[in-house]
Amino acid sequence: MRFLCFLSAVLLSPIFMYAQEDSAIFGAPTNNLGLRGVNESQVLANTLDWNKIEGVFYQFDDIRFGKVPTDGSFLLFESWNNKGVLHIGAERLVINNINFHVDEEKFISEMDNDSTFVYDFKGIDRIVVNDRAFVSMYSSKAGKNKVYEVVAESEDLSLLKNYYSDVSTGSPNPMLNRSRNKIRLKSNYFLLKNGGMIPFKLKKSGLRTVLPPDRAEKLEKYAKEKRLSYKKDEDLKKIFKYLRNL
Fold this sequence. Notes:
The chain has helices at 205-208, 213-225, 233-244; strands at residues 3-6, 16-17, 55-59, 70-71, 84-88, 91-95, 99-101, 106-110, 116-119, 126-129, 132-139, 144-153, 158-168, 181-193, 196-200. With 246 residues, the chain is mainly beta. The strands form two sheets. Strands 2, 4, 5, 6, 10, 11, 12, 13, 14 and 15 form a ten-stranded mixed β-sheet that branches. Strands 1-3-9-8-7 form a five-stranded antiparallel β-sheet, with no helix packed on it. It is globular.
């Protein structure tokens, strides 16, 4: 079962510190409160207004899997040793233990008591993990805020990536030939233009519908000359970087 415990303004066990970085790319339009950080052992004094911060302890115990062994993980990053930077207005809060639970769409830190601390995205402009920026934005299709990775951006067009999980549930019944659970992480891409999100297919034609013909033609020529793939995030970043200069 899943266990929740709301906490007050104390710090959690991962180490927090301040860092100076660029201003946020963009924030969640519905942000209004923020997160509350927690640590069972001590309170670290600093100038951050902890009333802006909220969070909960959460034990992820998926009853779908039972005692059947599982391949794969809901966690986006392979380890917990990740540098996270929370952008809260002009302030930066650095965390040395953070991951992203794709199925729950939550950023979490691992605790000593086998539970996790779940960060609330309210009040946070973005969360950067290992130099990868994530934002929370409202999805009209889902009817709620969802978390997106900012793959690339230009002045009038940004590329976002939303992760989701595909789960195949196993069974201990030998007759079913499905002895293990399998978790696969997948993703969808979206273009953010004028505050609206448009589904994006990973091919050059996906940009033709949102760019003037002359810019689209120059962009396609550049991608072809540089042998850039629309199916690779690193190449998409180069394509959008070129787009900023058009």
